[in-house]
Amino acid sequence: MNTTLAIEVFVTLFVIMDPPGTVPIFLSLTSGRSVATARKAAWQAVAVAFLVIVLFAFFGERILHYMHISLPALQCAGGLLLLLVALELLTGNEQEASAAADTNIALVPLGTPLLAGPGAIVATMVFTRQVDSVPDFTAVAVGIVAVHIVLWLSMRYSLPILRLIRESGILLVTRIAGLLLSAIAVQMVADAVRAFIAGEG
Question: Average of pLDDT values for 59-80?
Answer without folding.
Answer: 85
